Amino acid sequence: MNLTTVFPPAHNVMSRDPVSDELRASMTIAFSLCLHTSIITTGCVTNVINAIIFLRLGLSDSISVSFFFLAISDFVILFQNLLARVFGILDSYLGVNFGMLDIRSLGFLLTTFASVPYDITVCITLYTAVQKCCCVVFPFRFNRVFTRSRSIFINIFIYLVVVCYHIPAIASQHLRLVRNPSSNSTKLSVWFSPDRNRNVAALGLLRNVVITTAEIVVSFCVIVFAYKLKASSQFHSIRAKGEFPSQKEEGTVDPEIEENGKTRGNETDTKRKNKTGQNGHQTSSGEGRVGSSRKNQTSKEVRATQAVTMVSTLFVSCTLTSVVIIYVSLLYPAFSPRGELVNLYYVTVQVRLTLIFAWLSLNIVVYCAYNTRFRNELFKIFCPKSQ
């Protein structure tokens, strides 16, 4: 399903559609021109800020790399839709003449091609959730697999693959000089090739599979994150009270300590032995530094997991409507652009777009909440004199 923002014609055929043509037209204007434009404009700004801050922080780990590439694709989606809305307002409401260029055709192509960065965002979110889930559940096996350099390669690979499987549909629709016999004029308008419908149908099928798979897998990852974070919270709560239960007790083990306890324990024992004096007493300052470093690392991992959990939860919540619309329209053809419930369908699509645009714009809130360095860098950008 494309992030199309054009205003569809009213459906005048008598039907059992609960949404009237007038209500549909009013809601389309309220959603598309007012609410969506505000969210999209805000999202463009926030994603530029996200990309700048992650660059300034140095993209030091695989998660930061994925969040950086995610900010780029999110910005492209929103910017394309913003341009399409501006063109639509200039043409439909202000009557601006762009000469030989049919501005509505350009707006249509912008919103249609927004499916490319949208699929990139879906795939990067899927990859980020899966890689963090693997590192949380099996840190021994995957902590050294998802390195910074490999994450850069995988994200670039996602960009290339998504662009490649969109090429047939993109090539079958583009701007071309078209002569209008009624007005005896020539304009640069959208042109469809004979095989366009076939290419778009094949792309739509593939995209439905991608979004459905992502929804299922990311939902599973969120459940795993919630379980692991709860177990970690219970462990730290018990440890703070001075109780040290056996690691075999269910639900009281820090996931990171459970998986890495042997290695870290050996390293700590070695350091303790090296810092032990001739009288058999340990050096308290060395032990304190080891404990502090270990505590900071654990806290950083927990915050990173929380950030990925929230980003994944936003994705699942805001794209669930898209999956529901896909399968309801397949199982119940009346609920479709050409069915009896066309008005209800388009109103539901407006709600869907609202959730998607909100999802693409709200990641900055997650980063500020769970990333101290991101929050400090954001403060430096907007309040440089107070530093």
UniProtKB/TrEMBL annotation:
Residues in coiled coil: none
Biased composition (Basic and acidic residues): 259-271
Biased composition (Polar residues): 276-286
Superkingdom in the source lineage: Eukaryota
Subcellular location: Membrane
Domain G-protein coupled receptors family 1 profile: 46-367
Annotated stretches, region: Disordered: 246-300
PANTHER family: FMRFAMIDE RECEPTOR (PTHR46641:SF2), FMRFAMIDE RECEPTOR-RELATED (PTHR46641)
Name of the protein: Uncharacterized protein LOC106013676
Source species: Aplysia californica (California sea hare)
GN (gene name): LOC106013676
